[in-house]
Amino acid sequence: MTTINTVKAYINRLCVEAGADPQKIYSAKNDAWYFARGSSTLEVFFTAYETDDKSERIFLRCFSTIYPIPIDLAKRQELYHVALEINARNMGVKVGIMSDKGFVYAIGERDIEGMDYAEFVTLVSDVAYWADHLDDLLKSRFGEPETNLN
Question: In the chain, where does DSSP find H-type helix?
Answer without folding.
Answer: 4-18, 22-25, 73-89, 117-142
